[in-house]
Request: fold
Amino acid sequence: MDKSHTEAVDPVEQIKAAIEDGVRAFIIRGAAGTGKTTLVRRLLPLLDGLRFSVELIAPTGRAAKMLQMRTE
Reply:
């Protein structure tokens, strides 16, 4: 396959598939500005609909505050 032309895969769909395969914990990591919080905001309704208990954690107090503010 030509790696210069790859289709983007929706991370929510990837996580949905992982849940269907039995995965029950996820670590979402990446550099600042890569869309981690946006992904979490998209995942929360899905996980709520599946009746998952969700705990959000962050590596720093500032990151935790930003995550809290942006996912309420």
In short: The chain has a mean pLDDT of 88. Helices lie at 11-20, 36-49, 61-71.
